[in-house]
Design a protein that fits this description.
Number of helices: 8
Strand content: 5-15%
Number of strands: 3
Radius of gyration: 20 Å
Largest sheet: 3 strands, antiparallel
Shape: globular
Helix content: over 70%
Amino acid sequence: MLSFSQNKLIEWVIYTGGKLQIMKLKFSTAQTTALFYLGLALMGFFSFLFARENLYIDGDSLKTASNLVEKETLARWGIASEVALVGFQALAAVWFFKLFRKRDSFVAGLIAVFGMVNAVIILISSAMWFGALNAALAGQPEITQTLFDVHENIWKMGNLFFGLWLIPMGAMVIKAEMPKALGWFLIAGGIGYMLTTFILIILPEQTNFADLLVIPATIGEFWIIGYLLFKPVRE
């Protein structure tokens, strides 16, 4: 059983041999933030880059519906992990605010607000995926494809706020005297995500170029997770 106490201790209560033993694991605000961010990344990897890649076929409603029916368990785990991603995203947004608010409450607030918008965007996309699964199980491939297409488009449009979340994060990294290169990677990645939104609208065939634009974000996000986990960061 996990409980969060005011002195930042997570108490892990284990019942063994008729006795209650309490193990106290001390996590700083920075480390807790990193763990939520890591959870976000892992859930995103499984749901979007693994489960979705094995289910969704662009422009082929029969194949997409067939995949969802034949791989129903994978689809359900993919949806569940995307919903879990929403939870981790929301918690990471709140904990980033807690971490940085004493340095600049406005910029820290931007991280929290944009992070919460991200969570809502992904929650809506999860509902579309769930609807696509139900339509496939009901033998309605056209509706299945339409709902899954909407899921895809929500993610594409969501890139705008994925970028807006990273830009103030990078600014706060620089303000907090963390590595400046890390801050600039996050800012560059945020701008890349925002540009990707418009590239996918105006030049939809340029998907490879759009993928290149978010590489700095990937580097910056895993870097900040590692930094917050293993380096002391003062609130």
